[in-house]
Structure formats: structure tokens, C-alpha cells
Amino acid sequence: MSEGERFKSPSGTHDVLPPQSARWEEVLRLFASRAGRAGYGLVVQPVFEHLEVFRRIGEATDVVQKEMYEFTDRGDRRMVLRPEGTAPVMRAYVEHRPAVPWKVWYAAPHFRYERPQKGRYRQHHQLGVEAIGTDDPALDVEVLALAVEFLRDVGLRDLTLLLTSLGDATCRPAYLDALRDYLAAHEAELCDDSARRYRDNPLRVLDCKRPQCVAVTEKAPALFEHLCDPCRAHFQLVEHGLDTLGVKYEIAPRLVRGLDYYTRTTFEITSGALDAAQNALGGGGRYDLLAEELGGDPAPGIGFGVGIERLLIACDAEGVLPVPPRRLDVFLVDAVGGEHGGADSALLLLDDLREVGLRADRAYGGRSVKAQWRAADKSGAAYVVMVAPDELSRGTVVVKDLGTGEQKEVGRDEVGAWLRAQIEHLGEGG
Ligand code: AMP
After folding, report:
1. Which residues belong to CATH 3.30.930.10 in the chain?
2. Does 305 sit in the ligand 1 pocket, CB within 6 Å?
3. In degrees to the nearest 10, what's the CA dihedral of 34, 36, 38, 43?
């Protein structure tokens, strides 16, 4: 590692700083609101889990085979930084046995050792929901609608919901045999990875993005056309619910996604504003067999994850969700200084202003009154409140509207409420 690299954020990671981070706050707020209104509660989970939690979710997948940040802790335990969000939630479900349906949401970092490029990082962040304990298609509809409606809340419009069903333990085995036979007949045309793993996990080949595999699988049988009657009926109810809600979707018979646990409803939401190679904003589906894989009793479930970084790139491309302006309401100028209790008056007043809900700030370092006014102008605050000796002795402060230049005296104890009224008025007036 060069000297220059040592104190930079590691490759594939990034710092999110103000004012850009205000968009993150907004995205989180919108997601928490959407999920909360649908009855989902927040889960906060460890960033690392035992290796076993993830090994089960897809031994033949890139995420598990090649991309996990694995390490041995000081107690000789094999650990993994979470590469995805569903297995940890299911681990928690199996561990705590909450009442069902258990509906939760999360906002968490995920770690994958991928080749960093725009929209693909080694630490990215996902917003997601998981709903465990019922295979009612109404829940599929709820989860799908929540994903789409949240993205629309953010302001995105160029969205496509790709939808399929990956069947269940009844219809999938026979299909996998048929797919395996098809791939065996085309083995020589597959990429090395696919040729190696198609016998163990033929579905992965459908997810391979290499042109030769895309070409081979174009004519491969699709599970969607081989669903058993219960899976087909389930899917039709999901379609009906989405149609009723007016949520548009496209059937994508070849969609398999990057992890092995999906059953039945499986989906991805792509953005037309992103480069085709990285156009998935999020995705998810049912994982009705995962609870058993993690040592629990059978418990069907469905969920999705949306990548925050990807979502923000799509927002930039669509020109939505600009950085919200963070204007200060008030800048406090202390014209008394350390003498006559001035510093204390300023300290108390600033605290009072913040207490009543105003965004209030000040200058530091004992700067001259002139320098404080310059700082106030630079801050973009709507008002200045100045604590000055004469006014202070009368129980008042000076208030200046930096927009109009108007200045007046307001009672020290009323100034917070007075400003609030002005600011609310400003807000209403647009
Ligand atoms: P997945 O867990 O693979 O289904 O991914 C869900 C979403 O997370 C994707 O649609 C992306 O928006 C985002 N995502 C996945 N991997 C990455 C990554 N390496 N960098 C940035 N975003 C990612």
C-alpha cells in the first residue's frame, strides 16, 4: 500500500458527507414512513454473523463463493460481514420466534468483495423489508407495492418491475432436471464458471451475464412455464392484486437473481435511467424454505432490498431528489462578549432557540461583532439575533431579517416564539 492510500477510505467504500448526506436522511425518512405505515418495525442487527448463516443461502453463488468478507475472530470463530440482509433477519426470526406475521424493515451496510465501479461498491447500503410467517399472496402484493411506491416517493419515475415465479419444491426439481439436460447439451458453449456449476446449480447459469451464457440460455426452458398448479394459482393472485392496485409489471421468465433461496414470487426493479449493466435498484422475493435451512421450523417469507447508492445515482439521472436546502433559521451574534455575562446570555439564548425547534448557530472563537455579522451573512440564515448590552439591560434582543434588512427589538423571552411564527409564515408563503 502506498503512503497516499493508507489514509484514504478503502477501495469500493466512500464517505457520505454533508450536504449530500441530507439526501440519505430524506431517503431513510421516506422509507421508514412507507414501511411504518404498512406495519413494519425497525430491526437493527449485527454487521457480522457466523459464517454458517450465509453459507446456507447459496453455496454456488458469487456472493457466497467469491465475495464474502470472511474473517476469524480472536476466539477462532469464522465470521462474515453481512453480504445481504435476508439471512440475518431469518436468523433473528428463528432465534427469537416472534409472533407472525413478523414484518420488519432495516437500513444497513452490506459488504461484497466486488470489482468497484460506478454503482458497485464493496460496502453498499440497503433499505429492505422482510415479512415472515405467511405465504398469503396478499403479502406478496403488499411487499411489491411497498417497494414501487417507496421509489415513487423518492421521485423516481423511470421504473420497471420485473416479475416471475421460481416455483417451489414440487415443480422446481423436475424443471431443474430439464434445464440441466438442456445445459449439458450446450456445455461447450458455456463460460468456465457456468460449465463448472451448472450440474449443482443450473439456475445460476440463467443469471450469468457473459454473452455466451446469455446466448445459450435464450432458448433454455423457463421455470415460469413449468409451474405446478398451486404455484401458478399463487402467482395469478399476486398478478391480480398488482393489477387492482395499478402497479405495472413485466413478466420476466428468466429472472433468477443472485441468491439461491428464492421460491415462487421473485422480482427486480430496474431503472431506465441507469446503465444496463447496473440497472437494478432493488429486488427480492419469497424464500419459503429459508427458515428450515437456518435450523428453524418451516416459515414462509418474502422481502426485498433496495441499494441506497444505486437509488441516488438513478435520482441524479432523473434529476429528482436534489440535496434538500438546509438553511439556518437564526444566526446568533454576541455583541456583549465575555463581559457583563454576555457569553452566558448568548449561550442560554442559543439553547432556547434550538429548544423551540429553530435551526440556530453561532460563530466561535471570540470573534469581533463585525466578523460575526459576516459569518451570519455567509451562513445563509434567515435571521440574525444579536445580544447587545443596552438591549440586554432592557430585556430585549435585536432581530434582523436578512432577507428584507428590517431590524427590530423583540423581548428576550419572546424571541423564540416570535421567530417560529415568522419562519412558519415564511414556510407557508413558499
Ligand atoms: P441483492 O442483495 O444482490 O439482491 O441487491 C439488492 C440491491 O442492492 C441491488 O439492486 C442494488 O441496488 C444494491 N446492490 C447490490 N450489490 C451492490 C454493490 N456491490 N454496490 C452497490 N449496490 C449494490
Report:
1. 21-171+227-318
2. yes
3. 110
| CATH 3.40.50.800 segments of the chain | 330-427
Amino acid of residue 271: S
Residue-wise pLDDT tens digits, 122-148: 999 999 999 999 999 999 999 999 999
Question: What pLDDT is attached to residue 427?
Answer: 61
Report the distance separating Cα 5 and Cα 163, nearest Å.
43
Do residues 129 and 105 make contact, with C-beta atoms less than 8 angstroms apart?
Answer: yes
Residue of the nearest CA to atom 5 in ligand 1? 282
Instruction: Say if ligand 1 is within 6 A of residue 128 CB.
Output: no
Nearest CA to ligand 1 atom 21: 120
Q: How much is the pLDDT for 429?
A: 46
Superfamily of domain 21-171+227-318: Bira Bifunctional Protein; Domain 2 (3.30.930.10)
Contacts of 300 (CB under 8 A, 6+ apart): 132, 133, 134, 135, 286, 287, 288, 291
Distance in angstroms (rounded) separating the CA atoms of residues 216 and 213: 5
Number of H helices, E strands in the chain: 17, 16
Euclidean distance between the first and the last CA atom of the chain, given in angstroms as a whole number: 52
Q: Which residue's CA is minimally distant from atom 16 of ligand 1? A: 120
Q: How much is the pTM?
A: 0.92
Q: Give the closest residue (by CA) to ligand 1 atom 17.
A: 120
Ligand 1 midpoint to CA 422 (Å): 44
Any atom of ligand 1 within 6 Å of the Cβ of 255: no
Per the listing, cell 454533508 goes with 18
Model confidence pLDDT, tens digit, residues 291-333? 998 999 999 999 999 999 999 999 999 999 999 887 899 999 9
Question: Do residues 153 and 34 touch, judged by C-beta distance below 8 A?
Answer: yes
What would be the CATH architecture of the domain defined by 330-427? 3-Layer(aba) Sandwich (3.40)
Annotate 290-323 with b (16+ C-beta within 10 A) or e (fewer). bbebbebeebbbbbbbbbbbbbbbbbeebeebee
How far apart (Å, rounded) are the C-alpha atoms in residues 111 and 12? 10
Instruction: Look at the chain and count its residues.
Output: 430
Q: From 114, 120, 124, 311, give the residue whose CB has the most ligand 1 atoms within 8 Å, as the site to mutate.
A: 124
